[in-house]
Design goal:
Layout lengths: L6 H7 L25 H8 L14 H14 L3 E5 L2 H10 L7 E5 L4 H13 L3 E5 L5 H5 L6 E7 L11 H10 L4 E4 L4 H4 L9 E5 L13 E5 L13 H4 L10 H5 L3 H14 L5 H12 L1 H21 L3 E5 L9 H7 L8 E6 L3 H10 L4 E2 L9 E3 L11 H6 L7 E4 L5 H14 L1
Parallel strand pairs: 2-3, 2-4, 4-5, 5-6, 10-11
Antiparallel strand pairs: 1-7, 6-7, 8-9, 9-12, 11-12
Helix pairs in contact: 3-12, 15-17
The chain binds pyridoxal-5'-phosphate.
């Protein structure tokens, strides 16, 4: 992080820095293309000899300002925005894996990512091994193969809220000569900065807390610049060997610490085009300006809700890393700012699936939506929604209690949120 400025100040001030007479707010560069005076100026851009903008499928100034801000907040050297969190995770892996390669991922991850890795990437010839992140280093080591290129996990898993031991995973990845990539969506860089614990690349679904208002789908990738690709040059030819699509340029030689993000931009954005709209980057920047305030309130409210639920006779169990009896309490204290994790709490009711449904249907303030990490309190019942094809037995086998409720605590007044839960529990 910028040594002189605190996180809060960076949230508000970093990124767009207008010169005298320029707009105070981040301008939306609503332009697909950019004008040049000479043929040669534009030719140099195409050859990556100079940096600049020519077509928004690759780069747009509004997006770059916001990506740079998120990179600063994470303590990284470079960042890029993508059209969604799914695109961010796909690019993060595909930038260093190709057909015939293999990577390792924690099994307990967001369902969309699980499907992307296990089903869709397999069709591209890239194989994944899913591992239990709680397993011992010796056990995890068995998943590595000669063609393994990366290790992936989430800081706090969605929806099971397990906390990753980042140092354990970073050591494991590095002793095998591969980078650790972490999806840091749930804690956001306000609560956790994975690079400080040895992680190499961070991804985000900015759709969640970073936007924070459920207004734009988006993603982001940030590189720490710490992984030494040249040390394992044979393993990462795409970064270290000449790229025929750019006249034989080698990314690590030409761009140093910027190699990974440059390659993702000029190859993956160029060829797949999952760019974020500059309008969305503008909204994301507005969200970032209050990220520190919102996360503080989300966590404060979530802890109050978790403690309330814990004492309620109709509640069977509560999972929140901030609770003192959580198995992740110590890890949360070590890795997270003031032990704060995120605003999501999961819990189960005494009784059956029907009881959970009656509880959900009686909520008034908390809205039933397929979303989390929003300023407004929202709630989801996996057995009725994301996992509704499964029987109770199948749900339990997947680690999902049929009564599990994923409660995303918003930034309203905590007493109002608790009063809503109370009246719905009474009616359930
Ligand atoms: C939502 C989510 C994603 C996917 O992001 P989209 O922006 O919906 O594409 C990835 N990872 C985590 C942890 C998420 O919560």
């Amino acid at each position: 992080m910028d040594k002189k400025k605190s996180f809060e100040t960076l949230c508000v001030q970093e990124g767009w820095k207008p010169k005298s007479g320029e707009p105070r707010s981040l301008p939306i560069y609503q332009s697909t293309t950019f004008k040049y005076d000479t043929t040669e100026q534009m030719a140099d851009l195409f050859d990556l000899k100079s940096s600049g903008y020519f077509y928004s499928r690759l780069q747009n100034p509004s997006n770059d300002v916001v990506a740079e801000k998120i990179a600063k907040l994470e303590g990284g050297v470079a960042g890029m925005l993508t059209s969604s969190g799914q695109a961010a995770n796909f690019y993060a892996i595909f930038n260093i894996c190709e057909a015939g390669d293999h990577f390792i991922s924690a099994a307990s991850i967001y369902g969309g990512t699980f499907n992307l890795f296990g089903v869709t990437m397999k069709k591209l010839g890239i194989e994944v091994t899913f591992v239990d992140q709680e397993a011992s280093v010796e056990e995890l080591q068995k998943a590595f193969r000669p063609n393994t290129k990366a290790v992936f996990a989430e800081t706090i898993t969605n929806p099971t809220l397990s906390v990753l031991d980042i140092e354990k995973f970073a050591k494991l990845a590095h002793s095998n000569g591969v980078p650790l990539i972490i999806d840091n969506t749930f804690p956001t860089p306000y609560n956790c900065r994975p690079f400080e614990f040895g992680c190499d690349i961070v991804t985000h679904s900015t759709t969640k807390y970073i936007d924070g208002h459920a207004s734009t789908v988006g993603g982001c990738i940030v590189d720490s610049g710490n992984f030494d690709w040249d040390k394992y040059a044979d393993k990462f030819p795409g970064l270290t060997q000449p790229d025929p699509s750019y006249h034989g340029l080698a990314y690590t030689k030409a761009f140093g610490k910027g190699a990974y993000i440059t390659k993702a931009t000029v190859q993956l954005m160029r060829d797949f085009g999952a760019i974020q709209a500059p309008q969305h980057a503008f909204l994301l920047n507005l969200g970032l300006e209050t990220l520190h305030l919102r996360m503080e309130r989300h966590c404060e409210n979530a802890l109050k809700v978790a403690k309330y639920l814990k004492k309620h006779p109709k509640v069977d169990w509560v999972n929140y890393p901030g609770l003192e009896d959580s198995p992740y309490h110590a890890l949360a204290q070590k890795q997270f700012r003031n032990g704060q994790s995120c605003g999501v709490v999961t819990f189960g009711l005494k009784g059956d699936r029907e009881k959970a449904i009656r509880f959900m249907d009686n909520l008034e303030l908390a809205a039933i939506v397929t979303h989390v990490a929003d300023a407004r309190t929202c709630v989801l019942h996996p057995a009725s929604h994301t996992h509704r094809q499964l029987s109770d037995e199948q749900l339990r086998a997947a680690g999902v209690d049929p009564t599990l409720i994923r409660f995303s605590v918003g930034i309203e007044n905590a007493d109002d949120i608790i009063a809503d839960i109370e009246q719905a529990l009474e009616k359930a």
